[in-house]
Amino acid sequence: MDIGITGLGRMGAGMAERWVRNGHRVVAHNRSRGPVDELAGKGAEPAYNIEELVGKLQAPRAVWIMLPAGDVTEQMIQTLIPLLSPGDTIIDGGNTNFNDDIRRANMLKQHGLNYIDQGTSGGVWGLENGFCIMVGGEPELVKRLEPAFLTLAPADGYVHCGPVGSGHFVKMVHNGIEYGMMQAYAEGFEIMRAKKDFNLNLYNISSAWRYGSVVRSWLLDLTVGAFKEDPDLSQLKGYVEDSGEGRWTIQAAIDLNVPAPVITLSLFERFHSRQPESFAAKVLAAMRKGFGGHAVKKAE
After folding, report:
1. Integer CA distances (angstroms), 99 to 40, 104, 227, 242, 267, in order
2. I need a surface site. Which of 73, 145, 198, 214 has the fewest CB within 10 A?
């Protein structure tokens, strides 16, 4: 099928190449020229501006947006609206907030345009292994574009979740779960590392856990690779960003009156990782000294 895509970052480029490899006609656009030229060398048709992207696609057009959530994606949608024709579809494959999906779908309907939200998981490994695809949109429209979704996904890795917004909602919760899993692994390995008298080999232990253990997972596989390369992770700084989905998951939990302590604490631990020194910990030390005369450590 005819596929247009704008945004050839790590995920977008992998998606586009996977489509090309499987025989789809892909028209590719990016703000900078390099990724477009690289993908053109692999069989995609280059588009060096949005007008060219739209012009090279056959109606009804399908344009995937793989850009950062928020203003950048919003501006791209506004740019596309006057260029597209009634019946064309915009698919947002980034990590957009599901509330924005619902608003945008209603806005685009006024122009005769369609909207689908595509939650996409798989990272840089998606090109070879396939992306887990979570889609929200009207059934007939999703069915028409299903060949593209099925090409992106490995066997059984695609799901039509429900109406517009549901794909990104499910992906949001997926990432919230991911936060909790990652935090549990991190804490467990730190506990074992702290048990100095056992001199535990974390690479050997994590490797063994990959086989038969109830905690085996792809995240564990990645951890094994990290320990193999650098057993003490001495080349890394323990500073962990978050891209928004964990916060949105917690807000949804609050809105729905659902307790989510693990996901919430895992997000707060990411905040903790960004502090060179905790002021809250200083306050705690000051209080302990005040009420109990406990010893404190002086700042260097």
Report:
1. 35, 9, 39, 19, 21
2. 214
